Amino acid sequence: MRRNRLILLFLFILSLVLITYRGGSLSYGFFFLIVSVPLVSLIYLLYVRITFKIFQELATKSVVAGEPTSFRFILRNENIFTYSGVRVLFHSDFSSINGLSDLIEYELQRGDGISRETTLTCRYRGSYSVGIKAVRVTDYLRLFSLTYWKSPLFVNVKPRIVRLRSLASFDVTHVSPRRSNSLSSERDFTVRDYIPGDSIRDIHWKATAALCKPMVRKHTGPEEPSVVIIMDSFRRNEEPAVFLPLENKILETTLSLSLYFVNGSVTTKALTWQGALSERVLDGSESFEKFYSEMSAFVFRPADDPALFLACAGSSPTLLGASYVYLVLSEWTPQAMALCDRLGRSGTPCMVCLITDDTSNIPNDAPPALTDLIVIPTEGELEEYL
Q1: Collapsing DSSP states into helix, strand and coil, what is residue 317?
Q2: Which tens digits make up the pLDDT trace of 75-91?
Q3: DSSP state, 330?
Q4: Could you point out which of 15, 159, 337, 374 has its C-alpha 20 to 30 Å from the C-alpha of 138?
Q5: Neighbour count for residue 42 (Cβ, 10 Å)
Q6: DSSP SS3 for 361
Q7: Residue 317: is its pLDDT beyond 50?
Q8: pLDDT value of position 179
Q9: Which fold would CATH assign to domain 172-178+224-385?
Q10: Structural domain spans, the chain
């Protein structure tokens, strides 16, 4: 394109020289021909811009990160002129389209069309544009190009769940399956007031009916083993290229660990923060499906204080009966170390899953007692690290 422009500029200067030193109708005719060429090219580009037809669609609106989704786009020329030099540009920062490239240049004859059916894969959980970003048209003489932006195709991408077969770094002796209800007896528990988050199966229906308020069993025997997952809930950077991969891996790790323990019949409690400490109890497939829906729409907020979250989580009664604690974090902070130290002194083993691509964020000091640390890159496969 640059070469053609230089040639046109040279011919324009030559026409001026001919007019100046020779004159005549031939020189002026050559001058007006050279001047009209870029004008005709621009008119062609505007005409294509107005008449060009392009269509795109996704097969489903329920998109999961990392899973291919059927994608189709159609180019049509319904006019009298041949379209030449048409390129379709795609959103490629957070998604990819199989078999299609920005480098392909199409030429469409009158009444001709191109239809492509392929798959689109979204890399990260979140809301962003995918598919066709813009169309770039170049004129016949390749002097100019015109790019116009296509209406964005927004998707709400759900996090992926990795079904872990085992946890190589986890000592299964710390957590055993939940007790069967058949092993419970009336002398094993007293009753207390119901607290939001208590399991429905622990409700003592006779006491509830007698006192006219929800009452739950308070076990006096050995505590029922459970796993607590504390998930980092904060957005530390406003650039989508930074926070989308990080938040995606945090959610993926939390959900995959939760599903692993739920499938193993281990009560799992997830602690997050959205202005206040939030606890979710997972004791079956139904509660996990609800948790997954909530995490799909979870909003990481930059305004809250991570230190306050860890302080509140550390003082939560939920940790008192925990058999094992997972911390899914994006930064290793003094508050995180203090929480791990407190858990270690109470005899509760802890695993820190540090989601980061920054090696300077990895602590040099040994973690506190009973604490293990795993560094997981944002693009790393969980099966390789957990």
Answers
A1: helix
A2: 888 777 777 788 888 98
A3: S
A4: 15
A5: 14
A6: helix
A7: yes
A8: 42
A9: Rossmann fold (3.40.50)
A10: 50-158, 172-178+224-385
Give the residue from 253, 265, 232, 290 showing the smallest Cα distance to 162: 253
**Residue 170's pLDDT band (cuts 50, 70, 90):** low
Q: How far apart are CA 183 and CA 255, in angstroms?
A: 30
The CATH classification number of 50-158 equals: 2.60.40.10
If we measure between CA atoms, which residue out of 366, 332, 167 comes closest to residue 253? 167
Q: What's the average model confidence in pLDDT over 151-156?
A: 85
192 bridge partner residues: 216
Q: What is the dihedral of CA 4, 147, 100, 160, to 10 degrees?
A: 150
Rounded-to-10 torsion of CA 182, 187, 188, 191: 110
What was the pLDDT predicted at 223?
Answer: 53
Alpha-helical segments (H) within the chain: 2-21, 24-51, 205-211, 240-263, 285-296, 306-314, 334-345, 382-385
Query: Tokens representing 353?
Result: 């899953």
For residue 262, what are the β-bridge partners? none
- Asked if 3 contacts 142 with a C-beta cutoff of 8 angstroms, the reply is no
User: 3-class DSSP state for residue 55?
Assistant: strand
pTM attached to this predicted model: 0.76
